[in-house]
Design brief:
By secondary structure, this protein is an alpha/beta fold. Helices cover about 35% and strands about 25% of the residues. The chain has 21 helices and 24 strands. The strands form four sheets. Strands 3-2-4-1-10-9-11-14 form an eight-stranded antiparallel sheet, with helices on one face. Helix 8 (about 260-270) runs parallel beside helix 14 (about 400-420) and helix 10 runs parallel beside helix 14 (about 400-420). The chain starts with a strand and ends in an 18-residue tail after the last helix. The model has no long low-confidence stretch (mean pLDDT about 95). Bound molecules: 2-deoxy-2-amino glucitol-6-phosphate.
């Protein structure tokens, strides 16, 4: 997720844009750039690194303009280098574009534009946009027509802002599945990914909907749909303070990131579509070159690995073992050149995971990294990388990184199953179609079925607990572990995750009428088993909070509290069942008044041993 800022008006565009980018830095921070129209020429300035350094460099320049666009990048395609930083220019230098999102069909578009003589200077998907506008201009009556033709050809998600020397007083913007908002000031207008960029100047905002474009000048903006039909838009007054606005109006980054999961999962699917569908190769991996998998990771990423084991063994029929990276590196693992080691790491900088990768490599293994940060150490040391497209995860407690890791690992396992002939194309298509439904299932849980209110009410009952037990089986046992970790790390309540079948081998002695027992009781191959485990807890006066699918009378009649989650294909149920557990931990920590985003003793990325 990147940050876009556009400005046209009476002020110095350079200063307004830089100030706006600084307030969007939470959206991405590996490089920044801006383009200004000065004396009918577009001047572009870019820098890898933080906005602050960029600002110092720009302040040395005596440059003035009333119009420009800026961008702070969270790399999705192409490493965080200078040539990959936005804005991107057309061949003739008369058009500049910034973009947030993923152009799913960038590969065929790039081929077409190269064959028409366009030259590219970056590896980004974004650059196809500016060259496509330039190409369409040849057969259009004016820039806006070319701009519209372009947005109608793009697939995937995009928020775009463009400027051109042909119309040096206008910003051209479009939105599809990535946020874009217009700020209306006094003799000045703004375009941004999010309101914090212009809140100090105006609180009058117009939010573009998917499939809408805007032509913005200093007097205001005109809005159309992609077929050029005018659209009437309402001007909103933003009630937030700047601090609130950076969190999108949410109280903490964690709750904001929980609610970003439908988008993050959808972006991770579309960002990996090209190789999954065979349009481009999955670089660095030869499916027949290995016959076993070892997964190494830490914390929440380790829990994703436990679930990936189910995907790999059930779909690709390949043996997979999972280790804590900190254990793997000292147990002298048996590894050879027929072993694929998968490192799962949101940050790409976790010391134990990097050490495990290096040990595996020294023993001849092939390395695949599943990572959320392009250009991080893990991505540079792996033979192959599969990216999650969660955008920056600011809160220490990992939420959207986890669900996007599961998404990426599910795609990889299906791809591997098809490549190894373990599953037929139709079976893979069927399983893939279940994944496509997941973003809307999460959305339904969070926004339509109002189950988040149910979770909040239950959290209020238990936030003073001193212990908690999470139970799950099969593919949801790791979700019990993940739910317990979430509660531990932000509320400091001792919580344990356990395989429900293990209860009778000791932990059941812990059960009493005070301790909440959270049970993942969604439908699937072991549903009857988990229901009988719930009975065991109830027989000892335990308080059972059950996550269950609608129409589960057996579980409902035992549970003291129930949280309904949408029913999905069994192997995908962890992506949905983890959501209420994230919320449960969040609300309890918030009720306790703790610093949810920066819990005590923790860091977002553990780069030391
Ligand atoms: C999870 O909420 C924690 N933030 C922590 O366990 C984290 O998952 C772990 O440190 C691994 O981080 P990584 O994915 O960046 O390697």
């Amino acid at each position: 997720m990147c940050g876009i800022v556009g400005y046209v008006g009476r002020d110095n565009a350079k200063n307004v844009i830089i100030n706006g980018l600084k307030r969007l830095e939470y959206r991405g921070y590996d490089s920044a750039g801006l383009a200004l129209i000065v004396n009918d020429e577009i001047k572009v300035f870019k820098r890898v690194g933080k906005i602050r350094e960029f600002e110092i460099e720009l302040n040395r320049l005596n440059i003035y303009s009333n119009i420009g666009i800026g961008h702070t990048r969270w790399a999705t395609h192409g490493r965080p280098t200078l040539e990959n930083a936005h804005p991107h220019l057309s061949c003739d230098g008369k058009i500049a574009v910034v973009h947030n999102g993923i152009v799913e069909n960038y590969a065929p578009l790039k081929e077409e534009l190269l064959s028409k003589g366009h030259t590219f200077t970056s590896q980004t998907d974004t650059e196809v946009i500016v060259h496509l506008i330039e190409e369409e201009l040849k057969t259009s009556k004016g820039f806006f027509e070319a701009f519209l033709k372009t947005v109608n050809r793009l697939k995937g998600s995009f928020a775009i802002c463009a400027i051109t020397t042909a119309e040096p007083d206008k910003l051209f913007c479009a939105r599809k599945d990535s946020p874009l908002v217009v700020g209306l000031g006094d003799d000045e207008s703004f375009v941004a990914s999010d309101v914090p960029a212009f809140l100090p100047y105006t609180n009058r905002a117009v939010f573009l909907e998917d499939g809408e474009v805007a032509v913005v000048d200093r007097k205001g903006a005109l809005f159309y749909d992609f077929s050029r039909a005018p659209v009437k838009k309402e001007v909103m007054k933003i009630p937030w303070s700047l601090a609130q606005a950076e969190k999108g109006g949410y109280k903490h980054f964690m709750i904001k990131e929980i609610y970003e999961q439908p988008r993050a999962v959808a972006d991770t699917i579309s960002g990996n579509t090209a190789w999954f569908k065979g349009e481009i190769p999955l670089e660095g991996i030869e499916p027949s070159s290995f016959d076993r998998v070892q997964i190494v990771a830490c914390g929440t990423s380790y829990h994703a690995g436990l679930i990936a084991k189910f995907f790999l063994e059930n779909f690709a029929k390949i043996p997979a073992e999972v280790d804590y990276a900190s254990e793997y590196r000292y147990r002298n693992p048996v590894v050879n050149d027929r072993t694929l080691v998968i490192a799962i790491t949101q940050s790409g900088e976790t010391a134990d995971t990097l050490a495990a990768m290096r040990l595996a490599k020294s023993k001849g293994a092939k390395l695949l990294a599943v990572c959320n940060v392009i250009g991080s150490t893990a991505t540079r040391e792996a033979d192959c990388v599969i990216y999650t497209y969660a955008g920056p995860e600011i809160s220490v407690a990992s939420t959207k990184a986890f669900t996007t890791q599961l998404t990426a690992l599910y795609l990889f396992s299906l791809w591997l199953a098809r490549e190894r002939g373990a599953l037929g194309t139709e079976e893979v298509e069927e399983l893939y179609s279940h994944l496509l439904e997941i973003p809307s299932k999460i959305e339904a849980f969070l926004n339509r079925e109002r189950q988040d209110e149910t979770v909040k009410r239950i959290a209020l009952e238990f936030y003073k607990s001193s212990d908690a037990l999470y139970l799950g089986r099969h593919v949801n046992y790791p979700i019990a572990l993940e739910g317990a970790l979430k509660l531990k790390e932000i509320s400091y309540i001792h919580a344990e995750g356990y395989p429900a079948g293990e209860m009778k081998h000791g932990p059941i002695a812990l059960i009493d009428e005070k301790m909440p027992v959270i049970v993942v009781a969604t439908k699937g191959s072991i549903y009857e088993k988990i229901v009988s485990n719930m009975e065991e807890v109830k027989a000892r006066k335990g308080k059972v909070i059950a996550l269950l699918n609608p129409g589960s009378p057996e579980a409902e009649k035992i549970a003291d509290y129930k949280i309904e989650v949408p029913q999905v294909e069994e192997f995908l149920s962890p992506i949905v069942s983890v959501i209420p557990l994230q919320l449960f931990a969040y609300y309890i920590a918030d009720f306790l008044g703790y610093d949810v985003d920066q819990p005590r003793n923790l860091a977002k990325s553990v780069t030391v041993e």
